[in-house]
Amino acid sequence: MAQDEETPETRLARLVLGLRSQGVTDPKVLSAIEKTPRDLFVPDLFRERSFEDSALPIACGQTISQPFIVGLMTQALNLEARSRVLEVGTGSGYQTAVLARLARFVYSVERYRTLLAEAEERLRTLGVANVFTRFGDGGEGWSEQAPFDRILVTAAAPGEPKALLGQLKPYGVLVAPIGRGPVQSLKRYVGDGKGAFKTETLCDVRFVPLLDGVAREL
């Protein structure tokens, strides 16, 4: 069967096999990705590329992350069924939907109203009921709902995200791209229970920068 004749289900299955071969091996994460229709989160112009393992443009100059990075970051969180997760940067809502299949609650903050409204509509379409969203500055977190078991940052912070680390539980986990250049380091911070964090570098990544404040849109 030629690739352009493959069904969406076949393309998705091939994508998931590719993620496994690259190191995303957690069966729960792979299952969550397999059950989340990425084509719903991709603009019509790029719909045929929905099941490619690549980042794609979305509105407001942002991107929907490469599936491998979505899988890798989700796996690095080591989620549990009772986890309360803060997501900084709702974007298209794709990563949000994957997290929602693995965690008890997801609290997602987005600085673009347009993106947030579109993501909320997609999540409603999927019947996702355990996600709470907020328009605001993601770098400030969501103090009213803190502390969180896990925090995932989907934009590159220039340095250690101290404000967000302060909203983690003592043994919590935060995963974020760190760096100012076009290539950043994906880091995982794990709390030691005493206010300090063990830091691990996972790989090089490319993310849009984490900006202060909320966006002005025309």
Please give a structural write-up.
The chain has 218 residues and is α/β, with parallel strands linked by helices. It has a single domain (3-205), classed as Vaccinia Virus protein VP39 (Rossmann fold). It is built from six helices and nine strands; from the N terminus they run H-H-E-E-H-E-H-E-H-E-E-H-E-E-E. The chain has helices at 8-22, 27-34, 67-77, 94-100, 113-125, 162-165; strands at 56-57, 63-64, 84-88, 105-110, 131-135, 148-153, 168-178, 184-191, 197-205. The strands form two sheets. It has a seven-stranded mixed β-sheet, covered by helices on one side. A two-stranded antiparallel ribbon has the order 1-2. The chain is globular. It starts with 7 loop residues before the first helix and ends in a 13-residue tail after the last strand. The mean pLDDT is 94.
In short:
By secondary structure, the protein is of the alpha/beta class. The protein has one domain (3-205): Rossmann fold (3-Layer(aba) Sandwich). The protein has helices at residues 8-22, 27-34, 67-77, 94-100, 113-125, 162-165, and strands at 56-57, 63-64, 84-88, 105-110, 131-135, 148-153, 168-178, 184-191, 197-205.
Tally of discrete structural domains: 1
- The count of helical stretches stands at 6
CATH superfamily caption: Vaccinia Virus protein VP39
User: Outline, from the CA principal axes?
Assistant: globular
| Physical arrangement of strands within the biggest beta sheet | 5-4-3-6-7-8-9
Going by CATH, the architecture would be 3-Layer(aba) Sandwich
- The total beta strand count reads 9
What is the CATH class name? Answer: Alpha Beta
Task: Summarize the main sheet.
Answer: 7 strands, mixed
Helix content: 25-40%
Low-confidence stretches: none
Order of helices and strands: HHEEHEHEHEEHEEE
- Beta-strand content bin: 15-25%
Query: From the helix content, strand content and strand pairing, which structural class follows?
Result: alpha/beta
Radius of gyration: 16 Å
CATH topology: Rossmann fold
Query: How confident is the prediction overall: mean pLDDT?
Result: 94
Give the end-to-end Cα distance, rounded to a whole number of Å.
45 Å
